[in-house]
């Protein structure tokens, strides 16, 4: 089974090739906003580029995805600190998320990619929970997720360290909320 796309040469790694295709699709949408399985990376990339006969007024810009590690196929949880300023005082808040937006490949690298963490936007008072048991479904069990939000928090990863990827439906993430 080939994971590659004819528009670029395959790296021989399905995760690398899929993330490269997602980035390529996101860039095409950003350049021109006028143009198998029910849920899959291929379907999400195609929906992003060709949303159907009746085009929505605004196109989605992102294919969010989750990466899975080689050790037991657990979801990879990205984490880091973001500055939060309140009344002139800056503190740092820790963010974790298993959902990413690809921002680009590192210069001169075929495998290292910059990913932005996306956090869920939920209706109601749902709590994000923790990822100590690495179960996405239990961490988000009490939430009705309506979208994902940009965080501005980017990490660089080597895609060769992952054995799987799952894509969500295309979205336009909510902009960064600095009052996290």
Compact summary:
The chain is of the alpha+beta class. The chain contains 3 helices and 7 strands, in the order ααβββββαββ. The strands form 3 sheets. A 3-stranded antiparallel beta sheet has the order 4-5-6.
CA-based gyration radius: 17 Å
User: What's the average pLDDT?
Assistant: 80
Total domains = 1
Strand content: 35-45%
Note down, in words, how this protein is organized:
There is one protein chain. This protein is α+β, with helices and mostly antiparallel strands. The protein has one domain (14-167). The chain contains 3 helices and 7 strands; from the N terminus they run H-H-E-E-E-E-E-H-E-E. The strands form 3 sheets. The chain has a 3-stranded antiparallel β-sheet with strand order 4-5-6. The protein is globular.
Secondary-structure map:
Blueprint (H helix, E strand, L loop, with lengths): L13 H18 L9 H9 L15 E5 L8 E9 L2 E9 L1 E7 L6 E12 L12 H4 L4 E15 L3 E6 L13
Antiparallel strand pairs: 1-7, 2-3, 4-5, 5-6
Keyphrases for this structure?
three-stranded antiparallel sheet, alpha+beta, 17% helix, 180 residues, two-stranded antiparallel sheet, 7 strands, single chain, disordered N terminus
